[in-house]
């Protein structure tokens, strides 16, 4: 369970003190167990109208950007297409380019893999999006280490955990060379890439798209500190958020960067109610919708690596050991030894008296702000002013209307206290986030 409005102390900002500006983004609900597809209000994840609705709601709320995740291959669950993937995964660039035509100021952030793409292509695609959108493009740089995804590509195979970050680091270096390479030869030779050519486009409005990195662990933090403008993370408590915030800002400073130019965005959900009790009840109902009995068993099979359909979701955890030479869900990577994960699960279930479904709900619920609109506004502002985050990427549980209530009820309260914009001051995403234009290209552009 993530942030709870009653658990975080409120931090007052005295009159005359500087109040940090809150940044907000909208994550399009994707193929995961946080999205509730059984709700009658849920609509398509593929039809363009769904993307338009969420993006325009975010822009109406003066959000910084719209965030779109991507998967390069549908996952398989015990030899079948995973039931949360059957709706499909649209292409990121196509969706964002189309959204550029129906939005005016909203940033457009897309997740593109550095393991199974080529830097010249990706650099051109993001430069194109930045031109089409008038300077609103952002790239969430992700890596992949599973061979299942690699089977979709000519090279196949996979990269070890450390190797995928080395490739990603060089990938970004080459992409930057293309963004900076108009009217000049582009030449690079390194461990991963040998490239020689010319940039396909003149400088885009932002020169470089805004660069995001999603990473909570050491190598991911180092990569973000060296290459990213913003980091997408997941930390539920104020204390954990402040520790993570201080750590990544320090890592950026150690690399000679201004820490203010690395923004920290935890992902979170917001559940509202007319009273605190109403909000708490709404949150409980949503969590049970997100983790149905069948979903609970399916998620447990991902860790155990074996079929568990005979177990009662409302009963105790399986007494069998996990299987180590296979994965129940291909396309998913476990970040620890299954034996260690299972031991942790059993200890938690025993300590709290949790059934399978109850445990899965506790372990897989996205960090949440739960309360009345005023309480949620207070809580979000407290996190920002306490240096636990620079903003939040909100992940609604409903596609595509899950952001509407937050925009209508919480955003005005944040605006009233002067912590959130009432109008866009700039036109580019870098301006929204207070990020500088890359100096190297800015100088070259002036000379040209």
Number of helices: 16
Q: Report the mean per-residue pLDDT as an integer.
A: 85
Radius of gyration from CA coordinates: 22 Å
Query: Helical content, roughly?
Result: 25-40%
Which consecutive residue ranges, at least 5 long each, have pLDDT under 50? 1-7, 441-448
Distance between the termini: 53 Å
Give the CATH topology of the largest domain: TIM Barrel
Question: Strand count, sense and closure of the main sheet?
Answer: 8 strands, parallel, barrel
Strand runs, count: 14
Shape from CA axes? globular
Instruction: Provide the β-strand percentage band.
Output: 5-15%
Organism: Tsukamurella paurometabola (strain ATCC 8368 / DSM 20162 / CCUG 35730 / CIP 100753 / JCM 10117 / KCTC 9821 / NBRC 16120 / NCIMB 702349 / NCTC 13040)
Protein name: Fmnh2-utilizing oxygenase
Binding site for FMN: 111, 161, 165
Pfam families: Bac_luciferase
Commentary on this structure:
Keywords: Flavoprotein, FMN, Monooxygenase, Oxidoreductase. Belongs to the NtaA/SnaA/DszA monooxygenase family. InterPro entries: Diverse_substr_monoxygenases, Luciferase-like_dom, Luciferase-like_sf, NTA_MOA. With 448 residues, the chain is α/β, with parallel strands linked by helices. The protein folds into two domains: 23-273 and 372-433, Luciferase-like domain (TIM Barrel, Alpha-Beta Barrel), CATH 3.20.20.30; 278-364, no CATH class. Helix content is 40%, strand content 15%. The strands form three sheets. It has an eight-stranded parallel barrel with strand order 1-2-5-6-9-10-11-14, surrounded by seven helices. Strand 7 (185-189) and strand 8 form a beta hairpin. Helix 3 crosses helix 5 (161-179). Mean pLDDT is 85; it is low at 1-7 and 441-448.
